[in-house]
Amino acid sequence: IAGASIHQVAAEAGLSIGGIYVHFKGVDEILMAAVRRAVAQTRSGVLFSSLGEPHEFWKIVDGLLDHHEGQRGGNSGLNLELMLVARSDPKIRRELAANSREQAAFIARCVATLPGAGRQPAAAEALATAINALMAEAQLQALAGADIGRAGKRRTIRELVARLLPA
Asked: What is the model's pTM?
């Protein structure tokens, strides 16, 4: 991404260079638009709408694990490069941080629907934090092309729910 020319982007997209310049000033602006779109999808709930409603906790957990498992192929190289670009671009770093906060808030909303979460807010917060950490680990493993350890992560989440929010 960082080293791509507008000519390469136009060729890959099947567009004319002039057509791209009508909407974007350069490759950096295209990249920022893609990042902002991903953040907007997360904020609007579109990103998670296919996973289920927050009260469908286990469906959400499985959907997130499916999502990370799917990153092992497809666009994992793009995601990894985007993270590297963010190291030197504060605007992209802020957008990615906002996206991460939105994902964490969504998981917290899901955890809040579990029985006992309302009676034990500190335990629910700890559970949401642990799930976010497990999902971040799954994402990193997927970016590296490694097995995300889906079954182990699901067992860990089940055990955490049982211990932190006993029925």
From this structure: 0.76
29 contacts: CB under 8 Å, gap ≥ 6? none
Per-residue pLDDT tens over the stretch 55-99: 899 999 999 898 888 776 655 555 666 677 777 778 878 878 888
Convert the chain into a string of H (helix), E (strand) and C (coil): CCCCCHHHHHHHHCCCHHHHHHHCCCHHHHHHHHHHHHHHHHHHCHHHHCCCCCCCHHHHHHHHHHHHHHCCCCCHHHHHHHHHHHHHCHHHHHHHHHHHHHHHHHHHHHHHCCCCCCCCHHHHHHHHHHHHHHHHHHHHHHHCCCCCCHHHHHHHHHHHHHHHCCC
